[in-house]
């Protein structure tokens, strides 16, 4: 994999550090609208090429993957252009702003036999997959609780009147999109889509959610997912069944360890060796790409689509509207 990146934020640096740990993966180009920003990132990670025009990046024949870490509202446009130019894509979470955008990208990727991935760490982590194996030991499920909350360094600016991307509906921001989405990937990957979705949120004057709780009703159990950027909390996930429970320790995007109690016996698991949470998804994407396993890619896209559908249902149920909701998509452009 020879990757060109879009974006220069902290998440890009974490991704590039992850690339260092993976075999047969290399970042060979970075894009930023500002040359000095692109140059600083490229120099820090020994990347040879910089671009200030994304179209030049998309035409670079040496690049076969585009990693997108732009503001949320721009994911669709960048991914669309990359696919149109024959590039495979790794798109940061949230995958898209709307269901229509997600379906359009998936359809285009399939038509062109290109790989399209959502960069969501949780579902690629070994501890997460171990939890999948252990759930059946819990008996009949009854309750699932998740909380991923971090007081945002940008929240004080927001209170002072400075609206950054993450607190701006124009950029498809908000706590649901930015942080609670990890919870939704976690539970959707384990249990599928909820039959009923509700979102009760703290909504600011500009219409953005700063925190909230998504309730998912399944046939036999109830799930609550809390996410906040306006307050802090210990992060956790607890899955309760009639025979025991699983408790994830720490943030849901790290899955650093978990414990399972069944029949009075408590066991703790940690099967992860990399401290950088992004290494595992990069390894998975590389394996899928080099094996040409489009079927596995499409299975991951089905999961991403289910999460987008859940997020959009929750968001609209809470009355949160993005400009992307009003756009008409011209799907199948060249």
TrEMBL record:
Residues 134-246 form the GFO/IDH/MocA-like oxidoreductase domain. It is an enzyme of class 1 (oxidoreductase). The keyword Disulfide bond does not apply. SUPFAM superfamilies: Glyceraldehyde-3-phosphate dehydrogenase-like, C-terminal domain, NAD(P)-binding Rossmann-fold domains. Keywords: Oxidoreductase. Its EC number is 1.1.1.292. One of its GO terms (molecular function) is 1,5-anhydro-D-fructose reductase (1,5-anhydro-D-mannitol-forming) activity. Gene3D superfamilies: Dihydrodipicolinate Reductase, domain 2, NAD(P)-binding Rossmann-like Domain. It comes from the Bacteria. Residues 2-116 form the Gfo/Idh/MocA-like oxidoreductase N-terminal domain. It holds the Pfam family GFO_IDH_MocA. The keyword Oxidoreductase applies. InterPro entries: Gfo/Idh/MocA-like_OxRdtase_N (IPR000683), GFO_IDH_MocA-like_dom (IPR055170), NAD(P)-bd_dom_sf (IPR036291). PANTHER family: PTHR43054, SCYLLO-INOSITOL 2-DEHYDROGENASE (NADP(+)) IOLU. This is 1,5-anhydro-D-fructose reductase. The gene is afr.
């Amino acid at each position: 994999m020879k990757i060109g990146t879009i974006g220069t934020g902290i998440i890009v640096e974490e991704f590039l550090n992850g690339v260092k740990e993976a075999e047969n993966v290399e970042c060979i180009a970075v894009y930023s609208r500002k040359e000095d920003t692109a140059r600083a990132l490229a120099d820090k990670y020994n990347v040879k090429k910089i671009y200030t025009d994304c179209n030049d990046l998309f035409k670079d024949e040496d690049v076969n993957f585009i990693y997108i870490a732009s503001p949320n509202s721009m994911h669709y446009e960048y991914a669309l252009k990359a696919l149109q130019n024959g590039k495979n894509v790794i798109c940061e979470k949230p995958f898209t702003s709307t269901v229509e955008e997600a379906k359009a990208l998936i359809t285009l990727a399939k038509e062109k036999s290109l790989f399209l991935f959502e960069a969501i760490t949780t579902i690629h982590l070994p501890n997460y997959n171990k939890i999948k194996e252990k759930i059946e030991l819990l008996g009949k499920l009854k309750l699932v609780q998740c909380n991923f909350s971090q007081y945002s360094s940008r929240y004080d600016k927001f209170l002072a009147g400075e609206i950054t991307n993450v607190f701006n509906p124009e950029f498809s921001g908000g706590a649901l999109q930015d942080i609670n989405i990890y919870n939704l990937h976690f539970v959707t990957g384990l249990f599928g889509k909820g039959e009923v979705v509700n979102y009760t949120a703290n909504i600011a004057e500009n219409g953005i959610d700063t925190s909230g709780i998504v309730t998912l009703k399944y046939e036999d159990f109830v799930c609550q997912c809390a996410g906040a950027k306006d307050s802090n909390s210990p992060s956790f996930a607890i899955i309760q069944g009639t025979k025991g429970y699983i408790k994830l320790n720490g943030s849901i995007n790290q899955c650093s360890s978990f414990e399972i109690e069944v029949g009075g016996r408590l066991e703790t698991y940690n099967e992860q060796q990399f401290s950088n949470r992004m290494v595992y998804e990069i390894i998975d994407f590389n394996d899928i790409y080099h094996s040409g396993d489009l079927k596995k890619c499409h299975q991951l896209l089905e999961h991403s689509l289910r999460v987008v559908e859940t997020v959009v249902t929750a968001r609209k149920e809470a009355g949160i509207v993005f400009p992307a909701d009003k756009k008409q998509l011209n799907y199948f452009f060249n």
